Amino acid sequence: MNLPTRCLLALALAAASGLAAAADAHLEQIWPEHQARLQDQQRRVDALNASPEIPRSDADAKATVEELLAEPHRPLDPAALTGDWKVRSLQGARYGVFPYPWFKARITQRDGRLFFEKLTGSQRRSGWLLPPEDGKGDWYFVGGASVNEDPQVPYSKAAGAQPRDSDTVGTAWGIAEDRVLMLLDVSDESYEVYQLKR
Questions:
Q1: Strands 167-176 and 179-184: what pairing?
Q2: Strands 96-99 and 83-93, how do they pair?
Q3: What is the rounded CA–CA span in Å between residue 168 and residue 13?
Q4: Computed over its alpha carbons, how large is the radius of gyration of the chain?
Q5: Do the beta carbons of residue 49 and residue 62 sit within 8 Å?
Q6: pTM here?
Q7: CA 121, 63, 190 angle in degrees (round to 5)?
């Protein structure tokens, strides 16, 4: 291998390493075992929705999930996110897709970051919305799940604790003005969609 070729190879490797580091930097707040929930989200949702065990009575809910996730991803404007929202959950698994009614939610600025919280309903969720480092693409959600009026639970890594069952992570993006989707805790067994609107 001649010197110019070696130099080009070294530059290519350095660039690849830099891109990998940049891609991983905004995931530092998420446990490695939870990062898997952020990978292949669409493929996993599609596989679950294709399950023959889903009853016909869930067809409308499944179609709603598929239609929402087919919408083009739009960048989120931090300034436009703060304030009160309505949120509904659509929860999917191999045996069904379950829609829930609309509940209250809020996004606020805390210490220079955006904090999301579902305020009503028996199943609550709260945590940070983290923008991509390059300002492009989907955001990340990192938080905790709680029940009814129990205190909000922070993400374990942020609290200096070990991973726990209440930890919840996902992605968020815009689909229209005053319309946001969050895709949460996607695995080969289940997923949850939050649909937000003003």
A1: antiparallel
A2: antiparallel
A3: 34
A4: 19
A5: yes
A6: 0.86
A7: 55
What lies within 8 Å, CB to CB, of 186 at 6+ separation is 37, 38, 41, 44, 45, 170
Please name which of 87, 153, 158 lies closest in space to residue 118, comparing C-alpha atoms. Answer: 87
Domain that holds residue 152: 31-197
Tokens matching residue 54: 């889903």
Whether residue 20 has pLDDT greater than 70: no
> Is 66 found in the same domain as 11?
no
Contact (CB, 8 A) for 67 and 82: no
State the CATH number of the domain containing residue 105. Answer: 2.40.128
CA distance 128 to 115: 5
Mean pLDDT lowest among 27-31, 90-94, 99-103, 124-128 = 27-31
What are the pLDDT digits (tens) for 126-182?
A: 999 999 888 789 999 999 999 999 999 999 998 999 999 999 999 999 999 999 999
